[in-house]
Write a structure and sequence with these properties.
By secondary structure, the protein is an alpha/beta fold. Helices cover about 35% and strands about 20% of the residues. It contains 5 helices and 9 strands; from the N terminus they run βαβαββββααβαββ. The strands form 2 sheets. Strands 1, 2, 3, 4, 7, 8 and 9 form a 7-stranded mixed sheet that branches. A two-stranded antiparallel ribbon has the order 5-6.
């Protein structure tokens, strides 16, 4: 893995189950183009929260990128108050979700996210994680502090994220700024 992309889900409806709006779809189409640019069109593996607003973004990106496997849904990446009571036929406990672990054991929650990333490091050149605002913010801060020697903090609005170049240890906010000369 040469690149780690951390993305917040796109703009979504105000009613359950909170699907992406047309604006959210456009945000992810733009992100796909930008990720292709900043990663030199490397092979990608996508992991996402099973929340529909995150998963839909994960389904849009392969239209723009070379993905090596189907989009992988991980319950732990669901970092939102609208958690499911059950997932894949099992009752959801507080230790199943980053949202709860981040309140009780923040360090362990971030370490678990790092293990999730490390376990997938050899699957592709690019690992893309799609989740929710607090998880992306906290994990970016933790990961860059540990691996880049400096803690990077960004605000993440809907459809925004960060590209972490693991070789150069540089961070690039996504989406990329629009070039008015084009």
């Amino acid at each position: 893995m040469k690149h780690l992309i951390l993305l917040r889900h796109g703009d979504c409806s105000n009613s359950k189950p909170y699907p992406l709006t047309p604006k959210g779809v456009t945000q992810y189409e733009t992100l796909g183009d930008d990720i292709k640019t900043v990663t030199n069109d490397g092979s990608s593996h996508i992991i996402t929260s099973p929340a529909i607003r995150a998963y839909q973004g994960g389904l849009i990106l392969p239209q723009k990128l070379k993905t090596v496997s189907p989009v992988e849904k991980l319950l732990f990446l669901w970092d939102a108050t609208d958690k499911p009571e059950e997932y894949e036929g099992k009752k959801v406990g507080t230790d199943d979700l980053y949202y709860y672990m981040s309140f009780y054991t923040p360090k362990e929650a971030k370490e678990k996210l790092e293990r999730i990333v490390d376990e997938r490091a050899n699957l592709a050149d690019v690992l893309i994680m799609i989740s929710h605002k607090d998880l992306i913010y906290q994990f970016c801060h933790y990961y860059t502090d540990k691996h880049f020697g400096r803690a990077e903090s960004f605000s993440f609005e809907y459809g925004e994220g960060v590209h972490l170049d693991l070789e150069t240890k540089k961070c690039i906010k996504l989406p990329l700024p629009v070039n008015p000369d084009k």
